[in-house]
Amino acid sequence: MGLFSGRMKQLQSVEGSRSAPVLLLLLALFSTVPSDVQGRGILSSRAFDSFRLPNNTVPTHYTLHLDTDVDRGIFDYTGKVQIRINVVEATDQIVLHSLRNVITNLQLRNSAQLAVPVKGHEFDEEKEFLVINLGTVLQPNSGSYTLDIDFTNSIDRNDQSGFYRSSYTDEQGVTRYHGLTQFESVDARTSFPCYDEPGIKTTYDISITCGTAYHARSNAPLLGIKLLPGGKKITTFATTPRMQTYLVAWLVSDFVYEREVLKQPQLAVSTWSKPSSANLLSYSVDASVRFIRAMEEYFGELYTMSKIDNVAIKDGDYAAGAMENWGLVTYRESAIFFNPETQTQSQQIGVVTIVGHEFTHQFFGNLLAPKWWSYLWLSEGFARLYQYYVGSISHPEHGLRERFVTGPMQNAFSSDGSPTIRPMTYYTDTRAGISRLFDRIAYDKSGSVLRMMSYALGERTFQKGLRYYVQQNKANGVVEESNLFASLEQAAKEDAVLPLTFSMHDIFGSWSNQAGVPIVSVRREGDEFYFTQTRFFAEPQEDPLDSSWWIPISFSTPSNTAYEKLPAFWMPPHVSEVSYTIPLAEGETLMFNPYATGYYRMSYEDTMLNELIQRLNTDHASVQPAARARLIDDTLNVAHRDGGDYNAALGLMSYLREETDYVPWVVAHENLRYLKTMLRGDEKASELLQTFTEQLATPLLEKYSFAKRSGESANDEELRSIAIEFACSASESCKSAALASVTVKSRSVRNVYGATDRALLCSGLQQAEVEERQGFVSQVSRMLESQPDDPFARKYIQEVVACTGEVLKGVRYLLELDESERSNALYRLIVGSNVTPGDLLQSLHSELSRRQSISINPATIPKVLLELSHYVTEPSEISLLTSVVSQFAPSVASEVNYQLMANRKWIERNVGPLTAALSLIVSV
Known about the structure:
This protein is an alpha+beta fold. The strands form 8 sheets. It has an 8-stranded mixed sheet with strand order 6-5-9-3-2-12-15-14, with no helix packed on it. It has a 5-stranded mixed sheet with strand order 17-18-19-21-20. A 4-stranded antiparallel sheet has the order 1-7-8-4. A hairpin with a 5-residue loop joins strand 10 (162-169) and strand 11. Helix 6 crosses helix 10 (440-457), helix 10 crosses helix 11 and helix 15 runs antiparallel to helix 16 (647-653). The radius of gyration is 29 Å and the shape is globular. The chain starts with 7 loop residues before the first strand and ends with a helix. It holds the Pfam family ERAP1_C. It is an enzyme of class 3 (hydrolase).
C-alpha cells in the first residue's frame, strides 16, 4: 500500500467551474509562495491505517477569518485559520483534515512566535488528511504552537454540505444569494482545515468579511462591526464555548429577523429568514422561548450563551432538514414557518417538535459531545425523546407524549426486525459509514430505549440521573455511554429503585450494544405466568448471536394498576423461562406493557390473545390507547413472520369500527398501508383488503364527515384524513365526494390546503381521468412557478404530483423531501397511483446520472433506494434496482438485497393465508 492508500497531490481543485484566467492567476500565485508550501518534503515512516486522526497533536483554540463576496454573486472566498495546538507525543508531522481547500500559505510558530521549519505538506485524498511534514521533531510539554494556514475555496457546490450557497428570488424578480454552513458530520474540513472529529472540543474566534448590504451571523454573539474600503465590512464574534468542528456555523445573508429577549438570565431568541417571509416567524420565536425555558428547568442547567438564532433555509437547498449548530440553528423553511391565517395545529406541532429537537441538542450533543460517532445515540436519542417530552411541558395543548408512540416508537419497531440492522453503539470511521449512522436506530430506537428506562426507573429518578450526567460531565464535555450509565445508576441506587445487585451498565448495555428488538412470549397456568424472550425477526430465522436483554415487565388488570408503568420485575437475559405470579379475579383479563412504556413486542398464547380480542370488541376503552395500538402492531407482525392463521389478527382489527382514538388508528393506518403495498400484485387479495379497510374506516368517516369543524385538534384532522383515504378505496359515496373535490379545487388552485382537503384531493386525483389529472398538475405547476420560494406551495405540488403519478416530476421531488414526506410520496405513487417501481427507478437513474448538475446531498441517495426496495418484487425491477444501487449507493447493497429477498418470501408465505382470512371476515 505504501505510505498513503489514497493518491497524493499537492493541490486540490475546488468543485465548480473556474475560468482559465482564474486558474492562471492561481498558478502564478502558487509560484510565489514560500518553498515550504510547494515542497513535498520527506515523509514520515508512519502509515495511516485508520480514518482516525493520529491525535499526536490537539487543537486548543481556532482563530478563523473568512473574506466573502456572496452579496455580489461571487462564490469564491478566501480564509485564514490560526490553530493553536499542543503536542501530545513526539512527532515530525502534524495531521489534520482538509478537503477542497486550496492552501496558499502554511507556517508553524512556537510559543515564542519563532518559525518552525516546515518541509512541505501532502493530502491523503482517501482519508481526507492534510499532512504537514516538519523539519524537526516536536516534543510534548514544549509549549503551544500556532499553525497558520491561508486558503481559498468556493461555495459554488451542489452537495448541500460544508459552506455552500443558497438563494431566493426577491419581489423584483432578482436572485439573491446567501452563504450558509452544514458541517455535520464531516464537512467542516471541506470549508477550512481543521481537526474534524467529534470528540475534539475547543474554542473559536470567528470573523467574517462581507458587503455592507449583507450581515454575518455565527455561533457566538456579535462583538463588533468595522467598515472597510470598497463597500465591505468585517464582523467579529465573541469566543465560542468549547465545541466540536461540526457545530461551527455561520450565515452571510440579507435575511431579516424577529426577536424576543428574555430576562433572568438574559437570552435573545431570534428567527431569521428571507425578507418576504418576515410574517411567518412569530410562532417559531414563541415556541423557542417556551421550549428553552422548560428545558433549562427540566434538566437543571442554563443554556450557555446569551443568544440563540433559528435560520430558515429554502427547502430545496437544505437536505439536512435541521441542524443544532450551537447558537445558530438551521432549518428547512417549511419546518420552521407558520402562517396563522392558513395553517393549523399540525404545523404548530411540527414547529414545536423540530425546535425542541434542535434545542435539546444544545445540552445533549453540544454541551455533552459524543466521544466518537459510535455514540451518536447519546445525542440524537435524547433529542428525539425530549422534543416530545419537554415539548409536552412547554406546549401541553398538543398532546406530544402520545405522539411519541405513533411516531418514533413505531418507526423503531418497523426498522428493528431486520438482521442487517445495527446496534445503538456501533463503530465506523469512514465518511460513508458515519453518514449512515444517522438512521432510525440513532434517533427513534435510542429515544424509545431512553423512554423505557425513564419509566422503568421512574421519571423523577431518571430526571435526577440526567441532571447528574450533565453536571458530572459538562466540564470535560465529551461523553461515552458508560458516563450515562454511571449517572443513572447513582440516582437509581440513591432512590432504591433497583435491587442492589443490579447494574445500569449491564441493564442499559444490553440494549445499546445489541441489535434488534426482543419479543416476549407469555403463557398462563392458573395465576402463574411464564415468560420467554427471543430476538424478533420480521423473517423467520435463528438468531446466531443468541441475543438477550434485561427487560422491564409491566402489567395491569382492572383491579391492579400498581405496575402499569413501573416494572413488576426485570426479566434477566439468557434465562430460558421466567415465572411470575399475578392473582386474577374471575373474568379479569391481563395486559402486559399496558402503556407501551417498554421497547419490546408481546406475543400472547392463543387463549390470552382471544380474551384480549373479546375485551377490545366489547369494551375497548378499558384498555389504554397505546396498548391497543401495540396489540395491533405486535399481533400483525407475528402473523406476518409466521405466515399462518390471520383470523385472530384481522378479528382484532375489526374492533377499529368502534375506535375513535388517534393512537390506535395511526398505528393501524401504517399496518394497513403495509398490507396494501404487499398485496397490490394480487387482484383478489387487494380487492378484499380494500373492502375490509372501507368497512373499518366508514364509521370513523361518519363521525368526522368531510368538512372540518371549528375548534378541531390536529388529531381530529389527521383521523379524518385517514378515514377518507381508507373509505374512498371502496366506498362509492366517498369516491364521488373525492372526485367532486377535484372539480371544485381545479377552479381555484391554492398553495395551502388542510389535511382534509389534501386527503380528498389525493383520492379524487387517483380516480380522475388522465386529462383531468394532467390539467390539474399543469395548474399547480404554474402556481409554483409564480411562487418559486414558497415552501408550502412546493410541498403541495410534491404531494399532488405523487397523487397523480407524474413519474418524472415525482422522482425529481423525491430527492428533495425529508424522510417522512418521501415515505408518503412513494406510497402514493406506487400504491395509490399504480406507478411501477420500475418506472420510478428508470426516472431516478436518469436523474442521478445528471446529479453533477443538480443540487442533491449524497446521503439522500441510499435512503431513497432503501425506501424503494420495500416496493420491489418483480424480477425486472429487482435487476434494475440492483444495478442502480451498485452504481450510486453500493454501501447499502447488502441491506437492499436482504429487503428484496424478504419481499419475495413475505408474498410466498402470506398472500394465501391473508386472502383466506380476508374472505371470511369480509363476508361476515
